[in-house]
Amino acid sequence: MFRKILIANRGEIAVRVIRTCREMGIRTIAVYSEADRTAKHVRVADEAFAIGAAPATESYLRIERILDVARRAGAEAIHPGYGFLSENPDFAEACARGGIKFIGPPAQAIRSMGIKTRAREIMAAAGVPVVPGTPSAARDVEEAAAFANKTGYPVMLKAAAGGGGKGMRLVESPKDIAGAWAQAQGEARQAFGDDAVYVEKAILRPRHVEVQVLADEGGNFVHLGERECSLQRRHQKILEETPSPLVEGNPRVRRDLCRAAIKAARAAGYANAGTVEFLMDAECRFYFLEMNTRLQVEHPVTELVTGIDLVKEQILIAAGKKLRFAPDGIRFSGHAMECRVYAEDPRAGFLPSPGRIARLALPEGPGIRVDSGAEEGWTVPLEYDPLIAKLCAWAPTRDEVIARLRRALQEFVVGGIATTLGFFKQLLEDPRFQAGDIDTGLLEQGFSMGTVKTALPRDEARLAAMLAAVQASRDSQRNASELRGQRASRWKAHARLSIAGHGGPSR
Ligand code: MV4
User: Which of 231, 440, 442 to mutate to test the pocket of ligand 1 (most atoms within 8 A of CB)?
Assistant: First the structure.
């Protein structure tokens, strides 16, 4: 077993990985940027090393500096967390070259799943259902239009190098396809340096359902059930739960979905923890969307219903241990939900509100788990994703989880900055949400938090600049491969702000 692990990340996920390492008797090495000198993850680690200036490109994304610290400090393995370098195949390879174990999948699996058309191709060949679409990128708009005419509108244009909704355009009729094609291509080029675009039939009112898998390095696989992640805003997940209310009443769908996920992981040549994302339509037909080759933000809900520490399993797998679970050996119990509590102002179109946390009282008590890298008196840096805490709850039933979360939200106090706590209080009161009616349109349609009518503060230019900077840096944590997209993010941040300024959410 490893004696020392370096955590190449910050915030709540670094703290969370450090906790498991400590339980396993493994020493932990933190790295930190200038903006994180006083951060919690630095204090709770056994050792900590400065790696550069505040921007992620100068610190958390610096492969050589991080490997240098690992060598100097004697780390045998690196846990990348999520975002930053976690899905960078070059980093995984650099670790291997440096004789340091990357706690994650083989570089080849990261690389092939990172190219969305390649991932689709692999899954289709393996018999995993994929959305009907062009097998690879369309050559030109004529080829895209030909596909659309054949399958029928609406269709979705997507960046081949993309993922996570960047460079994506819904096209409802033939007259719109030329414009949408140019937009998708332009956005893809700016965001990924690659303008390849492919076409899929659009799934209407889809749900996002994903399956957690574990694989050891000897080719054994197990699934840990599904997570419902349909509540999103601008492709950012807001609240996740397991089991999915939609899948729950449908054991055959669950069985097929989880089998498809294992088939997908096998086809990807996978090892370690991963997630297979699916789109699900109203009839519970499901289609492979992408595979996330990392530990995900929302992994705690799976931990709460299985009792399995996913980080511990990741470390055991990386150390060459065989999976400890039989294919049908996982016991699932009760229901779990996660609210991502952000330093954002829902009344100002979810504008980031970094600043000093003057007061912080975290909820506790039965069935509550809070993963946080924030502390009272600490200033949320504006350079990174402004997540303050993941508020998670477990209870025997979904209704009880909701009641528990509502209680916990009342206990949760954050003073000094705006947060999304009030937004969650309203969401959890919503009868549609309570009924499990959480298709992806809920947040964009009727459910509002005063975002529609509240005027934005006057100093638009200053706000736009701040929003753009924050958005660019949080993108770099959410998906390092999107780093090249900072210019695009800035452009989009302006676009979003102006849309919000005209009185409503953009989708
Ligand atoms: C789609 C889709 C409809 N049809 N693909 C892909 C990335 C993800 N962030 C959004 N994606 C979608 N891909 C086809 N062929 C609709 C979405 C989508 C979505 C999917 C699940 C949950 C929320 C969503 C919000 C907007 C768009």
Answer: 440
Query: Which residue(s) pair with 207 in the sheet?
Result: 280
What is the pLDDT confidence band of residue 439, given thresholds at 50, 70 and 90?
low
- Rounded to an integer, what distance in angstroms lies between the CA atom of residue 361 and that of residue 376? 8
- Determine the residue of 235, 439, 442, 478 to mutate for testing ligand 1's pocket, defined as the one with the most ligand atoms within 8 A of the Cβ atom: 235
Give 399-410 as a DSSP string. Answer: HHHHHHHHHHHH
| Separation of alpha carbons 218 and 193, rounded Å | 36
Q: What is the pLDDT of residues 299-336, one digit of tens each?
A: 999 999 999 999 999 999 999 999 999 988 899 999 99
- Residues paired with 6 in a beta bridge: 29, 78
The ligand 1 site (C-beta within 6 Å) comprises: 131, 156, 164-165, 200, 202-203, 206, 208, 230, 232, 235, 279, 289, 440
Instruction: Answer for the pair 361, 411: CB distance below 8 angstroms, yes or no.
Output: yes
CA–CA separation, 206 and 211 (whole Å): 16
The CA angle 41-44-47, to the nearest 5 degrees, is 90
Whether the predicted pLDDT of 265 surpasses 70? yes
Amino acid identity of residue 429, one-letter, is E
- For the entire predicted model, the pTM comes to 0.90
DSSP 457: P
CA dist., res. 126 & res. 390, Å (int) = 36
Q: Which of 195, 9, 83 is nearest to 475 (CA)?
A: 83
Give CA separation, 344 vs 47, 471, 489, in Å. 32, 11, 17
Confidence of residue 506 (pLDDT cuts 50, 70, 90): very low
Q: Which of 286, 297, 410, 417 is nearest to 352 (CA)?
A: 417
DSSP string over 383-434: TS--EEEEEEEEESSHHHHHHHHHHHHHH-EEESS--SHHHHHHHHH-HHHH
> What integer pLDDT is reported at residue 339 of this predicted model?
98
Cβ–Cβ < 8 Å for 79, 9: yes
- Smallest CA-to-CA distance from 192 within 229, 164, 232, 230 is with 164
Beta bridge partners of 1: none
Cα distances (Å, whole numbers) of residue 388 to 238, 304, 359, 360: 13, 20, 13, 10
The dihedral region occupied by 469, where left means phi > 0, alpha psi between -120 and 50, and beta the remainder, is alpha
Do residues 86 and 79 lie in contact, with contact meaning Cβ atoms separated by under 8 Å? no
Pairing mode, strands 359-361 and 413-415: antiparallel
